[in-house]
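Task: sequence design from structure.
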């Protein structure tokens, strides 16, 4: 339960950081609503991303894993499509860059928390 809550918070913070760093990603809402955005991102990553990854496996192998950037961007775009009043992604490039920012933030936090465990 604690790990899932951490992931929700990280997704929300990642969306906020991406909206500040990447032109084309716009977040409007309160800090509390970031938890809802994080939850939506978590559900999308839990339910949709494995299916997309499975069917994209040949492209992932051919691109040496770089296609994961496209998949992460699509997951961010899908989360934005599910929450049109609070999160907006203006195109493919902002979605990919935003997905990269969120992935890097998640990776950094997990690297530091795994080192402590």
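Answer:
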């Amino acid at each position: 339960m604690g790990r899932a809550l951490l992931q929700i918070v990280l997704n929300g913070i990642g969306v906020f950081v991406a909206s500040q760093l990447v032109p084309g990603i716009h977040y409007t809402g309160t800090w509390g609503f970031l938890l809802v955005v994080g939850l939506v991102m978590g559900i999308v990553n839990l339910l949709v991303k494995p299916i997309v990854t499975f069917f994209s496996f040949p492209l992932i192998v051919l691109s040496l894993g770089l296609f994961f950037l496209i998949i992460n961007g699509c997951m961010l775009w899908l989360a934005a499509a599910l929450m049109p009043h609070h999160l907006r992604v203006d195109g493919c490039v902002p979605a990919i860059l935003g997905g990269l920012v969120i992935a890097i933030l998640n990776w950094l936090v997990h690297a530091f928390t795994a080192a402590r465990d």
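Residues 18 and 98 are 5 Å apart (CA to CA).
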